[in-house]
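Write out the 3D structure for:
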Amino acid sequence: MNDAEYDEDKESEVDIRDMLELQLSEVEMLTSMFPSKEEFKMDDPCTVSAVKSFLDGQIRYEFLHKRVGFSVKVTPRSSDSKVVVELVCNLPHDYPHVAPTVFTRSPLMNRENHQRLNEDLNEFIQGIERGEICMFSVIEWIQENVDQYLVTVEKKKDSSPIKEVDTVFTRLWIYSHHIYSKFKRRDIIDWAQELKLTGFSLPGKPGVICVEGYSRSVDEYWQRLRRQNWKRLVIKEKEEQDIGDEDMKKYNKFDGFEEKVFDARGGKGREYHMDLGKLFEFLEKRDCRHIFSLYFGVDGKMAAD
């Protein structure tokens, strides 16, 4: 069991309009800095229009279902380097009052160095004073520091790079105090599908996430997930097994990745709870019944009765 735990920043009063206006100014600045679509790409070009519609009073905030997201191709300061690091950014509506959600992609970086880059980048972002846009500073930090995370790629006789082969199957069982945010729910699903992971998520209070696949992809999923704001996010159990060149499907307990909803019942405010008895039945069918007591401290049959 992994006892890593992350606390969500307590909500405070913030003028969302002011925050979104700053975000639009930052996007405008980045667009001028990176005019090529190969360098700077919006996740959804319609997002800016939606934000502007809210700021102009054409739609109410509760109908603003999009948030600003983009990727930037960043090259190191050193002129002899041809390595490009892709910086992926998602801005919560209350950014820059809160930190942005960012991570990097770099196929020429080994697993350990890539994880260290993302952790150090996150530490740098946490040290930036909140309230000011910071993506330019983040890009500069990557440009100035990324070289130290790169390794020399050994070549075979045919000059093709030697790629790391991931043979470790990993399954993570993650507990969240709650999962309500429509944005988090979308990210949980989209990232799993992007990284070709299987499993499921259970929104509500508490929240349950299970992902399984090759260890490198599972680790990247966890790194992305933990960088969002959570009241509590814990790895309850981590299962690992070196499967060599065997077909991973033999070890999967789930087909694809999906969000599960079991007879949701309303609570106070936006709270809602799932039918835990049906969750137990779902886990039992996949030979995962022991997980129920790990999450809830009781035998699943008690919830099913």
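The radius of gyration is 21 Å.
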